[in-house]
Amino acid sequence: MTLIAYNTVPMPSFMYGTAWKENATAQLVQLAVASGFRAIDTANQLIHYREALVGEALLALDKQGVKRDALFLQTKFTPVNGQDHRTPYDVSADLTTQVRQSFDSSLTHLHTDYVDSYVLHGPYSRLGLGESDREVWAAMEELYQSGKTKMIGISNVTAAQLIQLCEEASIKPMVVQNRCYAALGWDREVREICQTHGIIYQGFSLLTANRDVMADPDIRAIATRLGTGAAQVVFRFAIQIGMLPLTGTTSEQHMKNDLQAEHLALLPEEVQLIETIAE
Ligand SMILES: NC(=O)c1ccc[n+]([C@@H]2O[C@H](COP(=O)([O-])OP(=O)(O)OC[C@H]3O[C@@H](n4cnc5c(N)ncnc54)[C@H](OP(=O)(O)O)[C@@H]3O)[C@@H](O)[C@H]2O)c1
Q1: Is 0.70 surpassed by the pTM of this model?
Q2: All residues at 6 or more sequence positions from 207 whose CB lies less than 8 Å from its CB, including other chains
Q3: 102, 96 in Cβ contact below 8 A?
Q4: Nearest C-alpha to atom 22 of ligand 1 is from which residue?
């Protein structure tokens, strides 16, 4: 299954996330692709990701016959406040240069000459968007216009910031990636803005941010009806409301189980129930 952003670029409807996989990253990416994932999320941020090991997996997959164009690669520009001393750019350079250096280093890590999606890991400003956000976004627009990334996006963004970006940017984001709390209506406000603008909404930490939901008797009952687990019910719910879920599993069995969510079907009243289950 694919989702299509407003610029008509398609994206696989389920994504494998590589945060916190450390030295197991290369092996887990290969396992994820063998299990059926075609979209991989990473970041050029050594605190949480091993982008170069994602690249190692891509070389191994290429040898096995899985070519670059069969995969959807997404990586991120992480501002200095999300990095430690191992920044993939010169911190004394201007922000435009930092984005270009980080992007070039991502291409080197991933052994490719383009990425499918390039995401700003988070705005510099907590409220609204400031000059730094504008400069970085303009540098990302430049990368999009050069054809080196097929999409640009933003992560960890509030509804107000997303509205502002859509209004001010020359090229509005095609992708938003946010942590998705059931207690906030599964990020309803941001999802609605995405829907209005044809932006693909990617939800992360769907399981880890919603442990109470996973244990909820209603979710358990739906899982029993479908002959599956609570995780698959949550992922299916995400897919059914038009969200692209990320999973960060390290288990081959869970990879397969999670992908099964694409083949389940929730009843309309079950979708409605889960929409407000923690509000
Ligand atoms: N943009 C950002 O700032 C940001 C921040 C955080 C994450 N992300 C992205 O989102 C990805 C996913 O995040 P996440 O790791 O928090 O997601 P997650 O999928 O909510 O959490 C992963 C946890 O869920 C468990 N799990 C997965 N499938 C399961 C199943 N079928 N049954 C039971 N447990 C299951 C995993 O355990 P097992 O390993 O045992 O399966 C693991 O403990 C990250 O890798 C990263 O790419 C982005």
Answers
A1: yes
A2: 214, 231, 234, 247
A3: no
A4: 248
Q: If you compute the radius of gyration of the chain from its CA atoms, what whole number of angstroms results?
A: 18
**Ligand 1, closest atom to CA 76?**
1
Q: Is 155 in the pocket of ligand 1 (CB under 6 A)?
A: yes
Rounded CA-CA distance 133/59 in Å is 34
Greatest Cα pair distance in the chain: 57
Q: How far is the CA of 206 from the centre of ligand 1 (A)?
A: 7
- Does the C-beta of 206 come closer than 6 Å to ligand 1? yes
**H helix intervals, 169-216:** 188-197, 211-214
Minimum CA distance residue for ligand 1 atom 44: 17
Residue 248 to residues 8, 122, 184, 189, 210: CA-CA distances in angstroms? 27, 19, 21, 24, 14
Residues 75-103: tens digit of each pLDDT: 999 999 999 999 999 999 999 999 999 99
Q: Which two tokens stand for residue 170?
A: 């020359």
Q: Which of 219, 254, 257, 260 to mutate to test the pocket of ligand 1 (most atoms within 8 A of CB)?
A: 254
